[in-house]
Amino acid sequence: MTRREEREHIFKLLFLTEFYKEEELEQQEMMYYEGISDAKQEDLTYIRKKYEKIKENLEQIDGQINEAAKGWRTDRMGKVELTLLRLAVYEMKYDDDIPQGVAINEAVELAKIFGGDTSSAFINGVLAKLV
Question: Structural domain of residue 124, as residue ranges?
Fold first, then answer.
């Protein structure tokens, strides 16, 4: 599995957190992991670890997003954009293995797939302020 595919799975898992209460989320996560049939164990481990680390740092990540997104607060952002920003900010600020430029580019590319017409420009603009 490529890093982009792993990143897509992490995005989808993070997206789930916007729609389920904590007690329901664990079951949704289990079902999601079971549905990833093409993943090797090492891929699943990578996805799980990164997903959990993002959730652990969510408050700090959201704070950084709020600072960078002038005029926007995380509670007013579209769920796709917010989820992609969270993933990218984690990669930029907490994951030393991923260069900032790669994190930004990947978030923009995923926004073109999962977001609306202006999502990629919005994400690029917010993330550029965090470099």
Answer: 3-128
